[in-house]
Every structure is written in C-alpha cells, then in structure tokens.
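Posted in: Protein Modeling Q&A

I'm a second-year student putting together a small comparison for a lab meeting, and my supervisor asked me to include a predicted structure for RPEL repeat protein. I've never done this before, so apologies if this is the wrong subforum. The sequence is pasted below exactly as I got it from our records. If anyone can share the structure token output, I'd also love a short note on what stands out.
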Amino acid sequence: MTSNPNHHAEEASKLEKLLQGRSDVKELQEKGILKNSTAAPALQAAQAELIKHQLEDRLEGKLERRPDRAELERLGILKDDAEDASVTQAKKEELEKQLKADGILK
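Accepted answer (user: helix_wrangler)
Welcome! Here is the predicted structure, written out as tokens:
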C-alpha cells in the first residue's frame, strides 16, 4: 500500500479544522456534558457518589420530619376527607339537578 503525501496533508488539514471547532471545557461544563469539578478525574466518580448519598440522607431526614396529615389539616393546608367528600357530593347533586332541569340529563 502506497501512501500519498497530499492525502496526509488533506487529512491533517481536516483534523485541524475539526479541532479548532471543538468546544472548550467551560462550554462542555455549561452544557452538562462534563462535570464542573475541581477533583481529579480519577476521583470524580467517587465525588459524584458521595454527593448522591448526601442528597439521599438529606431527603430522608426531611421526610422523617415531614408533618403528618392531621397536622396539615390542623394548619389548614389539607382539608378533612369527610368534609371534602360531602362538599363534592353536594356539588355533584347540584350539577345533576341543573343538567336534568336543562334537559341534558335524563
């Protein structure tokens, strides 16, 4: 197989153009392709795992301290199911009555 010097020059030129158009590290980090980490590449996987476990621990702690349903009802954040069901039933009956009066529901 013979090598063509012009072919090598063309390939080198193409490669140079591709390398010039390549995104830099900062741009890749902004796009989320590379992690924005100051840790050595060999430690980045361990760092990511540590961050994941820290997030899991914080979430677990927050879930343990989350107020129960009774407390949320007392604070007026949630409504009592029985009260909510009776209001819903009354609205349903009122709507059915109106639909019958309008001749839509038989």
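A couple of things worth pointing out for your meeting: The chain has a mean pLDDT of 87. Residues 41-64 form the longest helix (24 residues).
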